[in-house]
Amino acid sequence: MFVDHSSINRWAIGFLPLLEKVFRRHKRPVGVSWRMDETYIKVKGAWKYLYRAVDKEGKTVDFLLTARRDKAAALRFFEKAVNASGAPEKVTLDKSGANKAAMDEINARGETPVIVRQVKYLNNIVEQDHRAVKRITKPMLNFKSFRSASNVLAGIELMHMIRKGQIMLQGCSELSFAEQFYALSGKIRPV
Questions:
Q1: Higher pLDDT residue, 142 or 51?
Q2: Sheet holding 33-43, edge to edge
Q3: 89 and 58 in contact (C-beta within 8 Å)?
Q4: 143 backbone dihedrals φ, ψ, rounded to 5°
Q5: How many helices (DSSP H) and strands (DSSP E) are in the chain?
Q6: Residues 61-107: tens digit of each pLDDT
């Protein structure tokens, strides 16, 4: 049987968001001390920004691909992460002014203040975690659209979280990573 790589690409773009949605229902809880940072991804020849957060154990909290690197993007990312994983006690950032401004706004309107630390070297966990994503995206020679980049990055992050043991399904600890992925895909309900 022969399947063209463009068919697989279309399937990935169509099905990876569904798999990510299912995974979020079966994701293990993360810690309350987060490291937040962004990295660059090339889409249609222009740099876009992949915001990511991990807890102090290195488990992925959340991710978001944005067109801009500003306060609004950082705020959108942090709100998405909090909605999915609950509010952290501490967030460690690099020296990015946009991320700090977003955290200051969240603290100004929030009931529970979040301790914000801007210590460059405490963020090494998330910096090293970017490498797993970069290692896979670099040989791809850019994404052709923002939507395809967002969907494929969701799949890359999904596999990265499965490798980290962040899936919580009955009997998954005995399964290989590929078998965990297949078990997760079996949870998709037809529309």
A1: 51
A2: 60-66, 46-55, 33-43, 90-93, 115-118
A3: no
A4: -100, 150
A5: 6, 5
A6: 999 999 999 999 999 999 999 999 999 999 999 888 899 999 999 99
Question: Who's near 183: CB < 8 A, 6+ residues apart?
Answer: 169, 172, 175
**What are the tokens at 148?**
């395809």
Tokens standing for residue 118: 């801007």
Q: What is d(CA 142, CA 32) in angstroms, rounded to the nearest whole number?
A: 34
Q: Cβ(36)–Cβ(126) under 8 Å? A: yes
- At residue 190, does pLDDT exceed 60? no
Please name each of the domains of the chain with its CATH number. 21-185 (3.30.420.10)
Residue with more model confidence, 44 or 140: 44
Q: With DSSP H G I counted as helix, E B as strand and the rest as coil, what are the percentages for the chain, rounded to 5?
A: 50, 20, 25
- Residues 27-49 have pLDDT tens digits of 889 999 999 999 999 999 899 99
Name the burial class of residue 126, with classes exposed (0-12), middle (13-18) and buried (19+) by CB atoms within 10 angstroms of its CB: buried
